[in-house]
Design brief:
Blueprint lengths: L14 E8 L5 E5 L5 E2 L5 H13 L33 H11 L2 H11 L1 H5 L1 H4 L6 E2 L16 E3 L1 H12 L6 H11 L28 E9 L2 E10 L2 E10 L8 H20 L9
Antiparallel strand pairs: 1-2, 1-8, 3-5, 4-5, 6-7, 7-8
Helix pairs in contact: 1-2, 1-3, 1-7, 2-3, 2-7
InterPro entries: Beta-lactam/transpept-like, Beta-lactam_cat, Beta-lactam_class-A
GO molecular function: hydrolase activity
Organism: Leucobacter manosquensis
Length: 280
């Protein structure tokens, strides 16, 4: 693929970390401060899913094992498990809820099952120095708690998505299992918004033949989308993170505009369609 992506206008009030690479070669197609570390909200849940998949594939975990959620780890907000009558589910179902809805309660259940220290060690063991899942998800984060649930850089996050697609995270089976959970991600509001996929049904190739595997993260001061997109003309792995902590204005509108701009360029690149074909 020809490296033809351009950087959109980025609101200077936000801190950005951006990297898009050709997934087949690893060559950069677009970069902006790729080594700047951002708070990444739910993105670190990818490393939890990697650990769960590794344990299932090594027969340490039974995918049907029912998981009890300790009361002190109860959490709401993102996801649907906290609203369900039956909350004691199996490992595989909890992982799917994390991949599909970034489910906070399912996340805490799986972190507790695996152990927080072990989950924290997943990213460093894969060679990442500035990216990790750092803590349980909390309804309220007080000063004595870890400073963020997860953090990362665009360079490292785009790389983990490229390696997952290549089957290079522990094994092909582990990588495929993680990507299978991420395939159901229902949040296509950021970079992926421009792919025009059905948010609730894009496990297989969907609009214009695009196959998407991605994870998003959202807080009141952050938008982050990391993923892998494949089309008839090629594939890319990407990470786009924006933080505006401490800024008086809510920057979600200009941030999402820039993310969608990058997404449109990715769509053109991986589909190989000329611009006039986009709306057909």
């Amino acid at each position: 693929m020809t490296p033809s992506l351009r950087l959109p206008r980025l609101d200077p009030r936000a801190t950005w970390s951006i990297r898009v690479v050709d997934a087949s070669t690893g060559d950069p197609l677009l970069e902006h401060d790729p080594d700047v570390q951002c708070e990444t909200a739910s993105i670190g849940k990818i490393f939890l899913l990697i650990e769960v998949a590794r344990r299932i594939e090594s027969a340490v975990l039974d995918p049907d094992e029912s998981v009890e959620i300790p009361p002190h780890l109860a959490v709401a907000d993102s996801g649907i498990l906290y609203r369900m009558r039956a909350q004691r589910l199996g490992v595989e179902d909890l992982a799917l809820l994390v991949g599909a809805y970034s489910d906070n309660l399912a996340t805490n259940a799986l972190i507790h099952l695996c152990g927080l220290d072990r989950v924290r060690a997943v990213a460093p063991a894969l060679g990442y120095e500035r990216t990790s899942l750092h803590d349980y998800i909390r309804d309220h984060r007080s000063p004595e708690m870890p400073w963020t649930p997860s953090f990362g850089t665009a360079r490292e996050l785009s790389d983990v998505m490229r390696r997952l697609d290549a089957g290079d995270v522990h094994s092909a089976a582990v990588s495929e299992r993680v990507l299978g959970w991420l395939a159901s991600n229902a949040d296509t509001s950021m970079v992926a918004d421009s792919f025009l996929l059905d948010p609730l049904a894009h496990v297989d190739a969907e609009y214009q033949g695009i196959v998407l595997r991605h994870k998003t993260g959202t807080t009141d001061f952050a938008r982050v989308d990391v993923g892998h997109a494949r089309g008839a003309a090629g594939s890319v792995s990407y990470a786009v993170a924006a933080n505006w902590k401490g800024v008086r204005s809510d920057l979600r509108a200009p941030v999402l505009d820039a993310m969608r701009d990058i997404g449109e360029q990715i769509r053109l690149l991986v589909t190989g369609l000329p611009r006039e074909e986009w709306k057909r």
